[in-house]
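Changelog note: in this version the structure field was regenerated for every chain. One regenerated record is shown below for reference.
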Amino acid sequence: MSNSPLKFFLQILAFVCRICPFCIYRRANPGTSFSRILTRVERYCPFCRAHNKSYPAK
């Protein structure tokens, strides 16, 4: 039960990444140079990290 508030907070952070216009463009166009730059930036973005934890790559 102690993980529940943490998971809820993680879901909120992941939602911000889902509606971010930069992240939407990066996911839609993975081969562009802008996408490669954002891939480096997402290591430090708390929203992108939460999104990657909540929705792992298939």
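Spot check on this record: Residues 11-53 form one domain. The longest helix spans residues 3-19.
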